[in-house]
Amino acid sequence: MRIGTRAKAAKQVEPLVTWKFFLILVAGFAFFMGVGMTLPILPVFVHQELGGSDVEIGLVVAVQAVSAILVRPWITPRINRYGAVPVILSGASLGALSIALMPLAPNVALLIVLRLALGAAQAAMMVAMLSSVMAWVSEFRRAEAASVFSIAPYIGLAIGPVIGQLVYNVAGYEAAFGAAGVIAFVGALPVITLRSSDIRIEDLSLLEGENKPPAFYLAAILPGLVLALGIVGMVGMNAFLPLYAPTLGYASVQWLFFFYSAIVLSVRLFGRRFPDRVGPRVTGISATVSIVIGLGIMAVTPSWPGLYVAMVPLAVGIALQYPGLMALVLSNVDERTRPAAISTFTMFFDIAQGVGGLVVGLAAAFGGYRAVFGAGAVCSIIGLVVLVGWVLPRYSSTAAPSS
């Protein structure tokens, strides 16, 4: 057995979810549960309480992505100088406050301001939490760590709407938004105990002059583009599947989403080591092809059972693509550059939500619901071309591209 292989095997037997990793998972779960609690009641609040139009509802929902994108270059220097823990706690505080104040907004304009604050807070927390996790784990297990980490916010967003709707039905808007804010804040408090293992750069001279780490990591753009192109299909599914499935005689759309979520969570949990074991090339290509197959089946299926068939490759591809590409981006990135790489790469989640919404909306307007899924498949095919033609050739097992 080679020395490198022995080292990798030794790293694999070390526990992945340590106590500090667990606290990050709790913070992520609680924050996104709070965000999720607002999802079913925010459009109703805008429409009924503020008299907002459909356009204003869409603007309130989408504007969060704008601040999440714009704030990212500001986040990474703060993590390097002050540490991830203060950024996590600040993000949780700002996000919780903005959520709790939403039912007090007298008009749509002020609500948009609060949503912008929430977007900035969410981006800060995500970058800081992921930066911490990726600094703590072995380079051989970063894809696995990304998979495990993603489970916490995913479950939070799944449970949150159910609880938010329940609190709203019992006690109204103020109680629902207030409870969401409290949960988002309280879940992050235990992170304060991680100050001793924070990831800030101790030597401040490394943050100045020629040694100053980048706030933006150019090499993450193309992998991020591949990720965003894959997410377009998911955006279309979330937006138009509830309208398309009933045309096939199937009204229980919630079970389709449940089936999809169950597969994603299962792959992220039980298949978490797959990307690290087979490598980024196999993971990236197979995941993207799987997304194309799932969306293609969804676009041509003549009956609702076909939708369940389509969910299997689609969910598997979505579950594997993100951790595989994340590990690729972070290959041989030093600790000073790592927060910028994570920030730049994860920014494409927000870009996909905004641009993807426009793409699938135009596809639905001009071609109908099947065209939505077809457009998503085409986007993923473009992503596959970018992955094979430009991304993978720039990476090797020994070197990462320069920023």
What does this structure look like?
It is a single chain. It is built from 17 helices and no strands. It folds into 2 domains: 12-196, Growth Hormone, Chain: A, CATH 1.20.1250.20; 218-394, Growth Hormone, Chain: A (Up-down Bundle). It has helices at 3-13, 19-38, 42-48, 54-62, 64-70, 72-82, 84-101, 108-136, 142-171, 173-186, 221-244, 253-270, 274-278, 280-300, 304-329, 338-367, 369-391. The longest helix has 30 residues, at 142-171. Helix 7 packs antiparallel against helix 8 (108-136) and helix 14 (280-300) packs antiparallel against helix 15. The protein has 403 residues and is an all-alpha fold. 75% of the residues lie in helices and 0% in strands. The chain is globular and about 60 Å long. Residues 1-7 and 397-403 have low confidence and may be disordered.
